Amino acid sequence: MTESTKAYDLILHGATSFVGQIMTEYLANYQSESYSWAISGRSESKLLALKNRLGLNIEHFIADAADESSLSAICEQTKVVVSTVGPYALYGEALIKACVTSGTDYCDLTGEPQWIKAMLDKYESQAQTSGARIVHCTGFDSIPSDIGVYSLQKRAIERTGQPAKHVKMRVRKIKGAASGGTIASMMNVLKEAKEDPQLRKALVNPYVLCPSNHGFTVRQKNHKKAEQDKQLKMWTMPFVMAAINERVVHRSNALLDNMYGSEFRYDEAMSAKTASQAWTFTLGLGAFMLGASVSPIRSLLESYVLPKPGEGPSPEEQLNGMFDMRFYANLEDNQKIVIKVEGDRDPGYGSTAKMLAQSALCLAKDVPDLAGGFWTPASALNEALISRLSTHAGVIVSEL
Ligand SMILES: NC(=O)c1ccc[n+]([C@@H]2O[C@H](COP(=O)([O-])OP(=O)(O)OC[C@H]3O[C@@H](n4cnc5c(N)ncnc54)[C@H](OP(=O)(O)O)[C@@H]3O)[C@@H](O)[C@H]2O)c1
After folding, report:
1. What pLDDT digit, counting tens, does each position of 37-64 carry?
2. Is the shortest distance between the CB of 131 and ligand 1 below 6 Å?
3. Which residues is 229 bridged to in the sheet?
4. CA gap 244, 250 in Å, rounded
5. Contacts of 363 by beta carbon, 8 Å cutoff, 6+ apart
6. 304 or 14, which is more confident?
7. Cα separation, 255 vs 374, whole angstroms
8. Which atom of ligand 1 is closest in space to residue 14's alpha carbon?
9. Closest Cα to residue 86, out of 8, 9, 189, 176?
10. Ligand 1: distance of its center to the CA of 220 in Å?
11. pLDDT tens digits for 162-206?
12. What's the whole-number average pLDDT of the chain?
């Protein structure tokens, strides 16, 4: 089936996941443009229950991660497959294979650099040939980081003719909680890294997701502990999502023909109100990571402490959540520039579901000339996505 004869603009695969249900509800109420969509998942009874609950009159398809033909069948029907079936390192590969084979576009919510790297190595050239546009990380990881840096650098170049050499992102405010699916994905990265020394080495490389000919050699800062940033006059503490976001931003730079420069430095951290808050958080996070990397403790945490797959923040927590991220740089003319990216729901679910839906629509409708390959949100969707997010997803980019 050709692009123009496909029945749907998008199929949401994994519609019954915690975040998939939120996105289904968002699309059920989203009427600002015309588009065609359907949902899929492994359990017909869950898909029917979801449609019933939302009063939805749309098609559903049964597709299991272990059944390649069911995944190829959904690719035949749609321009874009959106997947929330994770951990992606456990369940994601067959769908990537089906998309690159059939030339179907794809976006997801993975924050698992080791899996993205494996997919790049295996399927990038096939996607370039078949025309499939694959865009990972179209949720809280890593859209705000990616479009924040892109917007800052665009302004820097407009004003001075040069990109900023160093951009710092600081999370100023964040309110939200993790779901069982996200915890399961994080635990799986820790488990795989523990078992594979090669992988541990790859994961500390900030350029691990860049094309092999990237040529970047600048040493990047890694915020592992509480620190005082004298230049920004604030205490900082580690930001867990930096591990994926920083790598996506460097890949964007490479795919945008080094728009941020070949000497570009980028680091992410959370700001803290006081030194003691920064240290308390850092020590707590360190203890958690240490515990989670030890198999018996990880099992205890998964069984008794952490949310299970399918669980996550309540509707009230999503509604009352928010995020505020700032991007700081000094420009060539010595002017300072600060970009703010803010979201009006909890980052991981309320905002992520809207960002994912708009990324999929953007891919289906706004970028017909984009070539096949593995892209990042900023390199593939940039202006069109930024505009969609501010109009339809409560994610606003502004200069302060
Ligand atoms: N990037 C971000 O900012 C961000 C934010 C939120 C979540 N995430 C990621 O998104 C993913 C989903 O999170 P979540 O909390 O919504 O997870 P979840 O509720 O645990 O959902 C996982 C989904 O995977 C499906 N699934 C599992 N095995 C399958 C198989 N063999 N075939 C087909 N489907 C299968 C489950 O189906 P059933 O419904 O039938 O059980 C469920 O729909 C996770 O990887 C998480 O890390 C990322």
Report:
1. 999 999 999 999 999 999 999 999 999 9
2. no
3. 234
4. 10
5. 79, 80, 105, 107, 133, 135, 380, 381
6. 14
7. 10
8. 43
9. 189
10. 32
11. 999 999 999 999 998 776 667 777 777 777 877 888 888 778 899
12. 92
CB 4 within 8 A of CB 36: no
- Ligand 1 pocket residue status of 21, Cβ below 6 Å: no
Residue 11 and residue 59: Cα distance in Å, rounded?
Answer: 10
Measured CA to CA, the distance from residue 152 to residue 259 in angstroms comes to 11
**3-state SS, residue 313:** coil
- Provide the residue type at 344 as one letter: D
Pocket test for ligand 1, best of 26, 42, 110 (most atoms within 8 A of CB): 42
Contacts of 2 (CB under 8 A, 6+ apart): none
Residue 18 Cα to ligand 1 midpoint, Å, equals 7
> Is the distance from the beta carbon of residue 91 to the nearest atom of ligand 1 less than 6 Å?
yes
Distance CA 182, CA 205 (A): 23
Nearest CA to ligand 1 atom 48: 109
